[in-house]
């Protein structure tokens, strides 16, 4: 399992665990969002990317991501919500959990961090959208708490993976962020930078995850803008990458 987990970050490969598919798209697959960037072609882009994982794009479960900390348990009734139209996506949600097979969870990002959680015991999964606001509200703790309540998940058995995100090298923030975060801030000269992955990694460790079970793709969307979409770099018309996770 330890050896396999990094594969989540070599899309379009899935984890070798046959019970799990997880991956994120690169820029080359095109914009995946129906609500941001040039949405024309987004459905074809999803179809093309997800076919590599043997996932039907019409089954995707999407949220109207709100930079909050609401986590939603999803079941078969949610299958396909937001898959064909943004209007049908699940309201006001930034993370999903499920222990049901065949439900492809979707998170869309361009700089924000996507976080994959896998409990191989149940098995159960969670996929989370973590920008600075959600990270400030410790969204991973909400997801893991819900997994504990519903699935009896034990944090020390959880695997975590981080998708591409804007990193401490590029993510300049204002001084007030010192009031929000006790870790993950990097000072260089008079400037302050936020390491979203670092913040969430510390939160996961505080919740009882083992360091060796946390895998970080390490990609900076801003540095590697030719490979990934970046809102900071490209502005309002930036497209979005798709992170997807499904139990089989
Ligand atoms: Zn960077």
Characterise this structure.
By secondary structure, the chain is an alpha+beta fold. The chain has one domain (5-247): 4-Layer Sandwich (CNF1/YfiH-like putative cysteine hydrolases), CATH 3.60.140.10. 17% of the residues lie in helices and 22% in strands. It is built from five helices and twelve strands. The strands form three sheets. The protein has a six-stranded mixed beta sheet. Strands 1-12-4 form a three-stranded antiparallel beta sheet, with no helix packed on it. The longest helix has 13 residues, at 139-151. The relative contact order is 0.20. Mean pLDDT is 92; it is low at 1-7 and 9-15. Bound molecules: zinc ion. The site of zinc ion has 6 residues, from loops.
Largest beta sheet: strand ordering: 2-3-6-5-7-11
**Overall number of structural domains:** 1
Which ligands, by name, code or SMILES, are bound?
Answer: zinc ion
Q: pLDDT average, as an integer?
A: 92
Classify the helix fraction into a percent range.
Answer: 10-25%
What's the topology here?
Layout: E1 20-24, H1 42-51, E2 71-73, E3 95-98, E4 105-109, E5 113-119, E6 124-130, H2 132-136, H3 139-151, E7 159-162, E8 172-173, E9 185-188, E10 191-194, H4 196-206, E11 214-216, H5 231-234, E12 241-247
Parallel strand pairs: 2-3, 7-11
Antiparallel strand pairs: 1-12, 3-6, 4-12, 5-6, 5-7, 8-10, 9-10
Zinc ion binds at residues 167, 169-170, 220, 222-223.
């Amino acid at each position: 399992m330890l050896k396999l987990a990094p594969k989540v970050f070599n899309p379009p490969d899935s984890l070798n665990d046959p019970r799990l598919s997880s991956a994120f798209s690169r820029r080359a697959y095109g914009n995946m969002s129906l609500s941001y960037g040039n949405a024309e072609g987004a459905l074809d882009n999803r179809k093309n990317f997800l076919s590599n994982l043997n996932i039907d794009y019409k089954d995707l479960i999407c949220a109207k991501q709100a930079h909050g900390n609401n986590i939603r348990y999803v079941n078969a009734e949610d299958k396909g919500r937001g898959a064909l139209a943004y209007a049908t996506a699940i309201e006001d949600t930034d993370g999903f959990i499920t222990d049901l097979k065949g439900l492809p969870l979707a998170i869309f990002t361009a700089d924000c961090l996507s976080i994959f959680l896998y409990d191989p015991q149940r098995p159960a999964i969670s996929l989370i959208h973590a920008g600075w606001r959600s990270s400030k509200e410790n969204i991973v703790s909400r997801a893991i708490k819900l997994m504990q309540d519903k699935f009896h998940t034990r944090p020390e058995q959880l695997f975590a993976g981080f998708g591409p995100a804007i990193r401490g090298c590029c993510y300049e923030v204002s001084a007030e962020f010192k009031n929000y975060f006790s870790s993950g801030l990097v000072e260089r000269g008079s400037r302050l930078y936020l390491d979203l992955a670092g913040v969430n990694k510390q939160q996961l460790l505080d919740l009882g995850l083992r360091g060796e079970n946390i895998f970080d793709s390490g990609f900076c969307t801003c540095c590697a803008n030719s490979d990934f979409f970046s809102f900071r770099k490209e502005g309002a018309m930036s497209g979005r990458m798709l992170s997807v996770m499904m139990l089989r």
